[in-house]
Amino acid sequence: MFTHAFPRAPLILGRTVHLRLIETTDLHLHLLPYDYYADRPMPGIGLSNAARLIDEARAEASNALLFDNGDFLQGTPLGDFMAHERGLDKGALHPVMAAMNALGFDAITLGNHEFNYGLEFLMKTLAGARFPVVSANLLTGAGAKGRKTLVAPYALLDRELLDESGQPHPIRLGVIGLAPPQIVDWDRHILEGRVQALDMVEAARRWLPEMREAGADVILALAHTGIGPSRHSEGMENATLPLARLDGIDALMTGHSHLLFPSPLFAALPEVDINAGTIAGKPTVMGGCWGAHIGVIDLEMRREGGQWQVLKSRSETRSLPSPEVESPAPARIGARSAPAGPIQVIRAVTEAHEAALAAIRRPVGMTEQPLHTFFAHLTGGAALALVAEAQRAFISERLIDPGLRSLPVLSASAPFKAGGRGGPLGYTDVPAGPLALRHIADLYTFPNAFAALRVTGAEVLEWLERSAAAFNRIRPGSRDTLLRNPEVPGYSFEVIDAIDVTYDLSQPARYDAKGALIDWKSRRVVQALFQGQPVEWKDEFILCTNSFRASGAGCFAGAEREKLVFGGETLTRDILRQHVARQGSLRILPRGNLRFAPMGSTAAIFETGPAARAHLTEIASFAPQERGLTRAGFLRLRVSLSAAK
Question: Which of 30, 241, 293, 473 falls between 20 and 30 A from 498, CA-CA?
């Protein structure tokens, strides 16, 4: 039974036992506080940063267990180096496993990005784990009971918990893992025919009774899923609320969306108590991303009649103070000495880190102009145009069918690094001059495979309408409406090279942030030209994109299996690298334009990185006016929408 939250003060246990559960999530291979793209330290992130928080959290409690909630394998050039250059042959240990082993994780689960480098690489990585890896809804085939899971569906951890007097009490903690079923779509080119995925709620229902029968006293769900709709629907991506309602789950660790829980962001949702840190009465935590935070769940329990009961709970997230602020000594409750976690992580990963740095500093080519994404939502820009150019050149050399070769080629690209949750430093920013491998990774951050679709003009127009969801509606005559919709990540805003598009932002969005049609009458695309002629519904094109988008992710029109004319495992990043190497010195001229329909006496607020100040001449037609910095550190620009751009 879950009654109320712990006070912030140390617990008075009496005959009860205090169990602390600690979470890291969405590390994305940020093991050290380092920005590989900028090739400089980045304080405040990394598993070594989280290790200090873990040390302190462990030192405060007699009984503490440590878990990771997935998306640990991909996200930095270190991951690309390990997967594509060094490899894991002859039993080599991946640095993330070395670091987790050193910190003494008790169990981990899988996230969607674990599969980006292929199933074989993932399994080689997991072979080095000295702890259970669990996932209950990812299957490899029929197997016994019709459900052979990729890894163990759950783990039973037998521990002895010490009460305040130091007396031991045995407990069996059940840990079940769950991941978004969309994994098999997002990495279809890797997983098709090899991995299947069940709905998370349905999978949990299947396994929870068996866990209880096997003696689990308390069950923790490691659910790599966000906090989304209250009502369960088959195959939903963000299923925390329906999972929390399941009988048998006692506590949940969540992630995937890179947010924090408890947080006021979720205060209005049904069955959510941000003060108690519970969802549907269950203690729940979401520990952010990149090692900048950890999640902590405290359970106060008593064993009566041979069964454990949870009496109270507290959930919180923790982060380190800014570097100039000294951290106070932690309070201790029956504390035991904790290892020097940051030092252990550093020792475990330093060699791989230095080898990766040497690799990403290798020269590839030259650029005569800066390549950045500071104004991608205003102008598209050279960074996106370069990716589009590389994709178009690649497919043009490989289309053999005469019926396909005769079709015009379009190329879609998105600003993967465009602020948002990445913060004011989360932009691609490549200066003019030599291009190294780290710059290629900065221009294209995800290890997506290349794909090409055969689409109609109608689908191109809908693709552009879907991208227009990235903008808020602007009332004519207004001055300070935020231009970008913060709910739409950069990777869901696509610019189609070779199309001149004009958006009318006075109109409501046709699609919502996730790509669902919300207003079938609305049209923001008032003009779309190809080679000076309007795109007609019956026109046909080859559209270059990536495996993630071609699988249907983001709900873009025409992004479906039947439309695929070229797939495979060639990474877009490799295509970009080879293109840059062939060109020598780059001078990029976008083939299309992004414009906004003029609204008299109208302006909007555009937020970007402070480093954009060095490039304001590129958006001179918007007459940008600096309006200071936000609390998060973004540069606020008032941009004019009074004239066609």
Answer: 473
Among candidate residues 517, 553, 68, the one with its CA nearest the CA of residue 290: 68
If DSSP codes are grouped into helix, strand and coil, which group holds residue 457?
Answer: helix
pLDDT digits (tens, 9 = 90+) for 157-173: 999 999 888 899 999 99
Residues 6+ apart with CB under 8 A from 72: 24, 27, 28, 29, 96, 100, 108, 111, 114
The beta-strand segments (E) located in 73-188 are 107-109, 133-134, 138-141, 148-149, 154-162, 168-178
Q: Which CATH architecture has domain 17-357?
A: 4-Layer Sandwich (3.60)
Q: How many helices (H) and strands (E) does the chain have?
A: 16, 37
Through-space distance between the first and last CA atoms of the chain, rounded to whole angstroms: 60
The per-residue pLDDT for 147 is 61
Domain 17-357 and domain 365-640, same fold? Reply is: no
Give the number of C-alpha atoms closer than 13 A to the C-alpha of residue 287, restricted to the C-beta side: 36
Closest alpha carbon to 576 in 80, 219, 154: 80
What is the CB-side half-sphere exposure of residue 128 using CA atoms within 13 A? 20
What's at 27, amino acid-wise?
A: L
Instruction: Give Cβ neighbours of residue 535 (< 8 Å, ≥ 6 apart).
Output: 457, 460, 461, 499, 528, 529
User: What confidence category does residue 288 fall into, taking pLDDT thresholds of 50, 70 and 90?
Assistant: very high
Measured in whole angstroms, the distance separating CA 358 from the mean position of its chain's CA atoms is 26
Is residue 319 classed as helix, strand or coil in its secondary structure? strand
pLDDT(146) > 90: no
Among 383-387, 456-460, 553-557, the range scoring the smallest mean pLDDT is 553-557
pLDDT over 70 (residue 84): yes
Domain boundaries, given as residue ranges, for the chain = 17-357, 365-640
What single DSSP character describes residue 85? I
Which helix (H) or strand (E) segment holds residue 606: the answer is: strand 603-608
- Could you tell me the strand order of the sheet in which 107-109 lies? 133-134, 107-109, 64-68, 17-24, 293-304, 307-319
Q: Are 55 and 6 in contact (CB under 8 A)?
A: no
pLDDT digits (tens, 9 = 90+) for 507-542: 999 999 999 999 999 999 999 999 999 999 999 999
Burial tier of 1 (Cβ tally within 10 Å: 0-12, 13-18, 19+)? exposed
- Determine how many CB atoms are found less than 10 A away from the CB of residue 643: 13
Residue 572 CA, distance from chain mean position: 19
Is 451 in contact with 391 (CB distance < 8 Å)? no
The three-state secondary structure class of 209 is helix
- Strand partners for 134: 109, 152
**Total-model pTM:** 0.86
Residue 560 scores a pLDDT above 80: yes
Residue among 456, 601, 596 nearest 527 (CA): 596
Percent of the chain with pLDDT over 90: 84
DSSP label at 83? I
CATH domain 365-640 topology: 5'-nucleotidase;  domain 2 (3.90.780)
Q: CA angle, corner 494, sides to 432 and 403, nearest 5? A: 105
